[in-house]
Amino acid sequence: MLEKMKEERILQKEITLTEKVPPLQLSGLSVQDIQALCKELHRKIDVADEERYDIDAKVSKNIKEIEDLNQKVFELKGKMKRPALRRVKISADAMLGALLGSKVKESVDFKANLKTVKKEEEKKEEVTDWRKNVEAMSGMEGRKKLFNANQ
User: Fold this and answer.
1) Cα angle at 46 between 33 and 63, to 5 degrees?
2) What number of other Cβ atoms are within 10 A of residue 93's Cβ?
3) What angle, 0 to 180 degrees and rounded to 10, lies between the N-to-C axes of helices 130-137 and 139-150?
4) Alpha carbon separation from 22 to 17, 25, 31, 107 (Å, rounded)
5) What confidence tier does 125 reach under pLDDT thresholds 50, 70, 90?
6) Which range is most confident: 32-36, 89-93, 142-146?
7) What backbone phi and psi angles, to 5 degrees, belong to 47?
8) What is the pLDDT of residues 21-68, one digit of tens each?
9) What is the DSSP secondary-structure string of 59-93?
10) Distance from C-alpha of 53 to C-alpha of 57, rounded to nearest angstrom
11) Using CA atoms, how far apart are residues 142 and 133, in angstroms rounded to an integer?
12) CB within 8 Å of 29: residues ≥ 6 apart
């Protein structure tokens, strides 16, 4: 398949070359005719080179423009600016109405669904004079009290 396509391309290339560029017939030409023919061929080559250069310049310009546009698109995707959020005072019923639409007809009491938490009262130790405490805890009896209190 690929070999057939290559052969077809080669044949098409040869056909277009024979159509566009006729074979040179140099036999029987004088030196001046050959020089004129060479000048004509040089002129055609110069025109073809100018066209090729112009096309290359256009292509490179378009490639640069495409790269710039791709860069701008990439920057715009990365720099999405989010608007500053403002605080909105709204009731729970209005918020549910906005979120769920007209599906909610009853007002929901959120406070009734909350758990009640009982606070434990902290045990406060009585503040006593530290000197009395040191005197009471000194000696073997103080250590015995601490030992019994920890058990």
Assistant:
1) 160
2) 14
3) 100
4) 8, 9, 20, 94
5) low
6) 32-36
7) -65, -45
8) 777 777 888 889 889 989 998 999 999 999 999 999 999 999 999 999
9) HHHHHHHHHHHHHHHHHHHH-PPPPPP------HH
10) 6
11) 9
12) 37
